[in-house]
Every structure is written in structure tokens, then in C-alpha cells.
Amino acid sequence: MLQRFGFEVAAAVGDAEELVTAVKEHSPDLVITDIKMPPTFKDEGLLAAVRLRKDHPGLPIVVLSQYVQQEYAAGLIGTGDAVGYLLKDRVADIAEFVAALRTVVAGGTVVDPDVVRRLISRPQDPLAGLSTREREVLSLIAEGRSNSAIGAALHISDPAVGKHVGNILAKLGLPPTDDTNRRVLAVLTYLRAR
């Protein structure tokens, strides 16, 4: 698709380390990466983007994300101009996506409108962004229930519970780390909000 719009693709990589290596090898005019990359699908892509900006100041980078994650957006935007933070839903509008890429290559900053709204609004109630079902799931997590027990209580499948838990963690701005238990942090946020 990118080639149809005049972009030359120098490399396509499978993980963050390959991304860093490819940038050294090809010196691209633009890097497009997902926040989550193998092997753990946590924040390897974002960490690689920040590292690349440190090693190659001004390198235009567009990061794609499934959800609005305020701390990721703020961290990337803080690296200077020629950056983009887009939700993957925006990629579906090809003309808008290509325009965003061209803006970043030209030195501009492009931030998804939903991200801007979240960064500006920062609701007082940290649970305000959760759906009714997500609040129900979080309430059951706070009771100490497992995903299977939550699924049984709400009459939904284990994968559906897992999806709700992932959405809750993303909406509460709890990125994956090795240092914290995100479910516990989500419960603490829930209890503080009550």
C-alpha cells in the first residue's frame, strides 16, 4: 500500500531489535512501528522508537497503537518534532494515514484526535472511560475472582473476559511492565475511585 503512494519500503521487520538494526543499515526517512512487538508484545516497539530517537535525533517515527495509552503518547511526543502517534483505526482511512506520514516526514507532529482528547480531558474519575461491562469485570477482579470465575458470573467466555481485562488496563493507562502487577494497580484505582 505504501508503495502505491510513492513510499519506498526499505525493510519490514518482525521485532524491535530487527527494527533498530534495520534503521542502522538503511538510514530511512521514516519509521513506522507498532507499540507492541515480539517477543512479549508489551511495549517493545515504543521503547525501540524512543531509543531510535535518542540515537538518531529527528528521525521521523510514526507509532501505531490499538488503544489510547496516554503515557505512551506523552513519552513519544516528548522526544521532539517529526513524530506521530496514531490509533490503528485511522490506518483504515488510507488518505488520512498517508497525509499523516507525509506530515511527520516533513518534520511535523501528528497525534490521533482521540489521543489529544484523552490527554487534554484527563477525567477526574479514572473509571469514566470504562464501559458498564468493563466496570462489572473490574468490580469482580476487585473481589479477587479469576477470569474463569468472572466469565461464569457474567455468563461470558474466558476470551471475552480477557479482552475486557485488556481494555480496562489500557484505558486506565497501565502499561505492561515487569515491575508491577497491573491487575492489582487496576483494583487500587477502582477502590480509590469508589
Automatic annotation (TrEMBL):
Listed Pfam families: GerE, Response_reg
InterPro entries: CheY-like_superfamily (IPR011006), NreC/VraR/RcsB-like_REC (IPR058245), Sig_transdc_resp-reg_C-effctor (IPR016032), Sig_transdc_resp-reg_receiver (IPR001789), Tscrpt_reg_LuxR_C (IPR000792), WalR-like (IPR039420)
4-aspartylphosphate modifications at: 34
Entry-linked Gene3D superfamilies: 3.40.50.2300
GO molecular function: DNA binding
PANTHER family on file: TRANSCRIPTIONAL REGULATORY PROTEIN NARL-RELATED, TWO-COMPONENT RESPONSE REGULATOR
Keyword list, A-Z: DNA-binding, Phosphoprotein, Transcription, Transcription regulation
Domain Response regulatory: 1-103
Protein name: DNA-binding response regulator
